[in-house]
Amino acid sequence: MFLALKEIRHEKLRYGLIVGMIVLVSYLVFVLSGLAYGLAQQNTQAISSWQASKIVLNADANNSLSQSLIAKSTADRVTLTSHEADIGQAGVVAKAKGQAKLSAQFLGINRGQFIYRRVKTTSGHKPLNAHQIMVDDSFKTNGYRLGDRVTLNSTATTYRIVGFTHNAKLSVAPVIYGTLGTWRTLSHVTTDFQASGIVTDRTDFKPQVAGLSTLTIPQFINKLPGYSAQNTTFTFMIGFLMIIAMVVIAVFLYILTMQKLPNYAVLRAQGIPARVLVTTTISQALLLVVCGLALGAVLTLGTVLALPAGVPMSFNLPLLAGVTGGILLTGVVGALIPVKVILNVDPVSVIGG
Amino acid sequence: MAVLEVKHVTKTFGHASNEVTVLTDVNFTAAAGEVSLVIGPSGSGKSTFLTIAGGIQTPTAGDVVVQGRDLNHLSGKERDALRLNRVGFILQAYNLVPYLTVADQFALVDRVKPQGNLSADELRRLLDHLGISQLVDQYPAELSGGQTQRVAIARALYQNPDIILADEPTAALDSERVKVVGQLLHDLAKAHNKAIVVVTHDLRLRAYADQTYAIMDGRMAVA
Q: Which of A153, A166, A190, B209 has the fewest CB atoms within 10 Å distance of its CB?
């Protein structure tokens, strides 16, 4: 580490540029990962907040909650417990006087069932009757306030916002929680229909009723329109970026080491063990990558703070740890590539004959 | 007492029609307490001889025995340890690490070899003697050729080796400095019982040598 630190201190510009390059690469990877995760979250936040295990849909709905309708006669054949909850989904456009229109997903839920209990309010309270709604916080950032009267689609009925809830997004749209009765109105269906689907937090729930299909929540999420395609795209983008970053960082560190070979040859001639030189090279690479990652993280944090609230960026620890570990590994691999050259460096090359 | 023996050493490079013999049946002995001078023109094989004597290169034929140990029988690690602990090199060029100050050049030795080096007092006296004590915070790029050479000499002596192999140690020095370095090497041999081997084409160093060899076209003889 002695040689590594001394060299960095002496060659500030050279090492500054390398750290700068690592900062930019890590910043790009962090931001892209954040956007990918944020967007994925906006597809599924509402579902995650239910803490459910499975969902039951109409077998002909192609695994889509918005296209599913479960008739009351069918639902009656399913034995429901306190672990199951009906849910009705309808795409809506919300409008309040003096506010911009907002596209949203209306979710009708039953007051006596577990989803209602698990959804948390950030202000106000949960809807208590058919004319009350609880909306995602993004309504607030768009100017909507508690007590605002909102119309949904072209219906004449107004609904009063009585509560806000955090991170309630479904298919990248803010969620409006209301009653199943309101859902029926918005979906233009009668009381012959129970809901769009039945959600359960039991892992062993699988009603054997004709016309119904049961999916696990991960299966259901993967079937959300566009979700898999979007995630696959981002995964490939980040994957390719990581590979390119790995090659670029490895090449930089390789060139750096090759430039130092004459110095290493002198040190080898003086009997400095190859182990010391290899340790120096690897510790220096790690130091540069750690500094680059730390600065990249600070830059990312600054970006997160500066971005408007509407930009879907969020982070989760395992993902960040994976990305960070990948870049660190890249640095070590880059430093390890020239180890054989260091081990075989010929002191005679600097002494001549 | 002989501490370095080169016995019937031949060194060739290349193969078949490209084969070049740089050293032919070289015999050499360096004793503790003596300065041995190897004089020859450029391309005569001086530096190759020095690298083989110090275990950096292996001979094509023949043996090199350092303090009773045949280098042909040592592993790479053992030869590294021998150079670090027993043999000090004063190289012709690039012999200082460019990103270390003069003081750090010695600190590096301390880190790799914590024991057996000169004490702080001995180092200060050595630097004073070589006229470079004011340069401890300078980087090699800030030194003149002569200053660099003297720091390299101090760097090699700092390890307190039993054998010092010097490749043109006075190449960049004026006559006054040649006297200082020549006398220093002579004093080290006499006062500290070191074996000093100097390869050079600087005949001014003959005055400080106990024995002189001449090398020409890879063949060595007592001059």
A: A190
